[in-house]
Fold:
Amino acid sequence: MPSSPLIERLTGTFGYPRLESLDAFDDFIGSPGVHLVFVPGDPARNLESDDVAVILPEIVAAFEGRFDVAVAGDAIERSVRERVESFQTPNLIFWCAGRLLGDIPKVRDWDDYMARVQAILASSGQAVA
Structure:
């Protein structure tokens, strides 16, 4: 599936790892702490994928390092969506030590992102300011 410059910016400019195998995915979500996996979908068919790719670094900055981020590679996207039983893309999926915390599919307004991420972080047991 073709990527886009905005999604590539996440791995290039921001340094978020691209998870290309399920082993890499399992290692990422299974490590200590809270983890967000961005599942972009096909940006050629879904314009919201690029929108979320632009918003994601702003969300990360707003929560000041309370979670780390990776981008699901094309080869594992389907498997990741099947694991969480959420097939909408783009999707921000949160994990803590291998446990699914929740997801935020599609584009949302800023206040909705802030409220949902705070609720997800609270469910992890991590303090939220």
Residues 5-123 form a domain with the Glutaredoxin fold (CATH 3.40.30.10). The two ends are 38 Å apart (CA to CA). The mean pLDDT is 92.
